[in-house]
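User: Predict the complex with iron/sulfur cluster.
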Amino acid sequence: MSATVYLETFGCQMNVADSERADVRLRAAGFDLTSSPETADVVIFNTCSVRERAAHKVFTRIGEVRRRRIGSEPIVGVMGCVAQLEGASIFDGSPSVSVVAGTRATDRLPQLISRALDGERRVIDLDERAAGEAWDLPATARTSKYVAFVPIIEGCNKFCTYCIVPYSRGREKSREPSDIIAEIHELHRHGHHEIHLIGQNVNSYRPKTESGLERTKGATPFCRLLRAVAATGMERIKFTTSFPRDFHRDIVAAIDEHENLCEWIHLPAQSGSDRVLRAMRRGHTASDYLKRIDAVRSARRKLSITSDIIVGFPGETTADFRETLRLIEEVGGYDGLYIFKYSERPNTPAASLMDDVTLEEKSARFMELETTQRSFQRKIYERYVGREVRVLVEGTSSKFPSDMTGHSTCHKVVNFRGTELMLGKVVNVRISVAKRNSLYGEVISAP
Ligand code: SAH
Ligand code: SF4
Ligand code: F3S
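Assistant: Here is the predicted structure with iron/sulfur cluster placed in the model:
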């Protein structure tokens, strides 16, 4: 009988994409994937290290899973960002772990697990991807049958001083456009209605060759890719994350020209203080950022904008924090904002600075920023009442089983009364109620 593997994923969409890839490679090697950590022969965690709390989570989960086991001890493996960063020291801290697979070892996971099943105690692989390794995944292997993540660039060269990602994911590597386009055609044929082009910074996309892209249209390779992806006929195309420094107006022009490029941009500001932005080495000032926002606001279609902010970066004064509040006011509030308290990450440049904003102060700034954002967000959401949005139906609402849920093209969560027959379809919903983080409405036309 073949061994069963349980795979659990933390962190960003890149990890979700890597887990899908691991899943395919494991099945191809003859493993059975299971949803039961209590009985699986092998339990693998795909981990995130972006903040301290995220990095700790895996160790708590290993303990929980072991306590709930029915029968023998499993082979435990740690893959992803924590594995890449902590390497062999994981074996010392957590003796039940016998496999450590870094962020570029996904394709070798079957062999690593087999060695552990054969009795090897400390199997570790922190190497690069093999030359010519394929990125593509069959459409049938996706976590969601409706929305597919398509990585276009992995790694990060930006080295923002607080961030661990360049260390855990390595240097930027862009995928060839012809591969990306072929994968999207396959997803389209298979019935996926929506794809997300993903990367730490999608607009830093720089492939080795531009085969399959028209040279003339748009100033940047990312923009040429966007136009080529739009030409596949895929119904809804979203992309994330956009790096403000390299955010070019041509992206807005492409969205204006192609209806299937969705009206949503995730453009993380991180701070509104030039002093803090410099210390973060983001490569943009508050006024540069606001110019990008102006470009987005000048689009023919109304585009949603979301962002990330870090509060309590080392040395952030009350005056710096006020600048961040001012930035939010000048933006006019976001359609969604993710706020994070600064978390020191080992060996990043900012770790050598004194983490001098107290936790109480970080919490107070977090709450004040959240309150400001909320009041803007309420008004933004209320403007949707009476309007129609196009929603891809992705599941049943977790709170009300008679309601279905999905995302609009402007990437808002929309709930409405419906049935499972609507799953995977695109429906028009007229919004009747604006909630805190979602919209509610009635379906007015179903296919
Ligand atoms: N590549 C994306 C972000 C990836 S990490 C970008 O440049 O925008 C996702 C978010 O986590 C970041 O935008 C940042 O707001 C937050 N983050 C990253 N490192 C952090 C740290 N050390 N402490 C707190 N938040 C952090
Ligand atoms: Fe981290 Fe900055 Fe790279 Fe984003 S751009 S992943 S914040 S180093
Ligand atoms: Fe986390 Fe690694 Fe993504 S640190 S945010 S899983 S790149």
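The first strand starts at residue 4 and ends at 9.
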